[in-house]
Amino acid sequence: MIKKSKKVKDYKLLTKTLPTMRYLEPNSVFVSVQNNRCKTYEMSVKEGDHVLFGQQIGVRHGGFFEQPIHATVSGTIGTISKKLHRTGRKIDVIEIKNDFLDTPHESVFDRPDGVIEKLTQADMVEIVKQKSLVGLGGSGFPTYIKLGTRDKINTIVVNAIECEPYLSSDYRQILENPEEVITGLSYIMQALSVDHALIAIKSMRNPLYEVLTQVLEVRFPHLNIQVVKLGNYYPQGWEVEMFEQALGIRIPPGELPTKYGVIGFNVSTTVGVYEAIKHNLPVTKRHFTITGDAVKFPQNIYVRVGTSVRELIDLCDGFIEDEENVVIVMGGPMMGTSVTTRDVIVSKATTSVIILKDVEYKEEQCVRCGSCVYSCPAHLEPVQIMNAVKRNDKDVMKGLRANECIECGLCAYVCTSKIHVTDYVRKAKKLIG
Is the C-alpha dihedral spanning 275, 277, 283, 286 positive or negative? Predict the structure, then answer.
């Protein structure tokens, strides 16, 4: 496992300490009508139409599911154009010119607690499905499928570990909105008929522990929810590692956690469940980290889904250096995707943008030091997989279990020869399907 440098700690400390800035009134939002799981779509609005906040304006088509598309502001429909997605690919987005009124659609309403208490699993699954909630930690997997599991669940774990360097949006969201996190968790417990849940944090996060335990004791004494402190290392936030450390359950590769009676949800996804069930709202806003050594004022920002990252960078006083001398990474620095422009939009599952000074490294020949093997949390042999990729030997790639790679980036991080080992393993996964 790796230790973060002092410099990385300082940037994370800064964004953890500062209150979250709010930027909820962009002139326009650009709502993605495609994503990495849904390539085709149908729109129910056209240019010039007026739409309301939370209104369904179209639907995305996935391989085995559909996702409604919602307006994240009220205003006037513009044109469809191409913007960069968090995956580094260009996708279609539709502009909505903000009228700054946030006039809610009739589908947006508050459910009384008495009504919520009577909701069944099927009811909640349908609500979450219609509100198009997906995994907001980056997976983008439809939450209704996860919430609709037929496996018997004994324990729910909220993953509040946030182990990637630099990122701190979950940390601030819990500090500032602990009741929303816990209420969302209580709805998930109700849907899955579970009476025991954990909120997993790093052991160094004493402020989170104090806030959560106090709020649970005072506001939710009837819920059997515990806050558990886990290790301060990367990748502690990997779900398999989290379940093993929190519950002593090791999920074998290729197996679903639900078969072992456990299920995990990200902090933002848990709040998304709260918004959907309580307010019948889709994900229209999210907490977002913008940080790194090449941005002047790193901070966490509460933004509209569809906001331009270009605007957020300007909000942070721009770059320290010229734009051509920086590297822009969507997501965490270990598992994120480098993009060539800041013309990116904040989608529902976009957690952050990291802006770093561009430092060139000369790649050397592998010296067979074994650092990548010793550091791999999935117990793979990354350098051997790399060699198999160079030979295009798919049988060896399969035999080396390349498809079990979690793409944590540790092998590339520790490589003494500065080889982008993770990229080779990622390529192997694509080659063997």
Answer: positive
Q: Tell me 88's DSSP state.
A: S
Domains in the chain (CATH in brackets) are: 6-106+283-357 (no CATH), 113-279 (3.40.50.11540), 371-432 (no CATH)
Residues in the chain: 433
Taking only the tens place, the pLDDT of each residue in 91-142 is 999 999 999 999 999 999 999 999 999 999 999 999 999 999 998 987 788 9
Would you say 312 and 290 are in contact if contact means Cβ atoms under 8 Å apart? yes
Look up the pTM and report it.
0.93
Give the residue carrying structure tokens 């390349």: 402
- Give dist(CA 94, CA 24) in Å, integer: 18
Q: Sign of the C-alpha dihedral, residues 377, 383, 384, 390?
A: positive
Q: How far apart are CA 203 and CA 209, in angstroms?
A: 9
Check residue 234 and report its DSSP letter: B
The rounded distance, in Å, linking the Cα atoms of 348 and 268 is 10
- The Cα–Cα gap between 208 and 337 comes to 29
- Does 196 or 2 have the greater pLDDT score? 196
